[in-house]
Amino acid sequence: MTRFFPGAQAPETWSASMRRTKKIDLVGVDIASLPLPSTGEKLIYDSEALGLALRLRASGSRTWIVFESGKGKTRRRTLGDVFSLPVQSARVFCTVPLSTPQKDNPDLYFETASVAEVMAGYLAFGENRRWKPSTGRVMEGAARLHILPSLGARQVRAITRSEVMKWHQELTRTTSAARMALSTLSGMMLYAEDHGLRKGGSNPCRGLRKKTRGERGGHLTPATMRRLWKAIEGHAELYPDPCDVIRLLLLTGARKSEILTLEWDRVEDGRAVLEDSKSGPRTVWLCAPAVAILDRRRSLCGGRFVFPGMNDDAPRSSVDFAWKKIRKAAGVATLRLHDLRHHFAAVGVSNGLDLKVVGALLGHHDIDSTLVYAHMQTSAIKRSANRVSGLIDDALSDPGARSPTRHRPSRARSQQCVRSLGVSITEVGNG
């Protein structure tokens, strides 16, 4: 999709009436006083940014729109409400071409560049180099709606930590998108450092909590797991495909979308090598029970997808209906499918697996995503500390004397504990 920018020619697909429309400098216009059309909508085009227009509707809305061309067609995209997005920021969003020079061009920005100007370049950079289209849309929305109205006119180099903290606190009280807005602003500040607009390591967003780290990821109790597995088995005949999906989610810790869209060509040697996922290419490791499920399915159905939809050329889109039945039968009405992924991680962390290993198994892009389980590592560390101190105590004690105060479990009990621990570790280690 091509955005129009100053000096570009209007595409041939624009109508004659659009080309003949008189354009005005919208910076000097009192937008609130402009009369609304009696019916439908009216467009007023900006004279400075080709493709940018003010849309007035009879309903009372006043929004910025930008015309874009691609694949021989022209479409218009809404940028945002005019009272939330200043006209200068709207111009930047529609005037920066996607071919914006990157880090190797140190003269891309002036030292006095505003947040709006740098944000547009940052989003163009990510669209070209890093993000999925859906991620880019979310980040662009966060910038337009929550960053530019408050900080867009400020110089990037002048933004302070206290200013960001105040902005984020106010935003947190009004919208659930505050975390994404903070993450977007933080990424833009790093981008600004790369372009010499700020000193290295001066990101004012650094250290602010981008994610609420509550007590997420707790174990499902053994009793809950037994009820859940029994409910899955009880519904397997009626909902065979959804039950297999749920089994694989529980055994692998994969995301629902990764299992639903899994292709047979991606399954090999006890693993599923995904070309694309939420965090990019990654490997889902398959334990023996998961491999058995896939082997059984391979013998029953062909086609491209492990879980085909109504049309064999597309994957299954949902298992929500069957999941509601299963969790109701198991007595866990509030349990989410994604909680199975949390349980998978919790088993690993609470049994001593390093957070980096758990993050790799889950396909986390960075360690911050795995740190939500850090509170669970305390019990594993405590057990390890007790074991180490016990070994030291044994070494210091008189070999012929036995401490009357320390209980030594029987060999059978120790073996039972090891087997129990081994099952837990195997669930994650092979998953």
UniProtKB/TrEMBL annotation:
Domain Core-binding (CB) positions = 113-193
Q: Where is the Tyr recombinase domain?
A: 215-386
Instruction: Give positions of region: Disordered.
Output: 394-416
State which residue ranges cross the membrane: none
Nucleotide-binding as UniProt keyword: no
Alphabetically sorted, this entry's keywords are: DNA integration, DNA recombination, DNA-binding
Tree of life domain:
Bacteria
Entries under PANTHER family matching the protein: PROPHAGE INTEGRASE, PROPHAGE INTEGRASE INTS-RELATED
Q: Which family does it belong to?
A: Belongs to the 'phage' integrase family.
Name by which UniProt lists this protein: Site-specific integrase
Q: Which organism is it from?
A: Novosphingobium mangrovi (ex Huang et al. 2023)
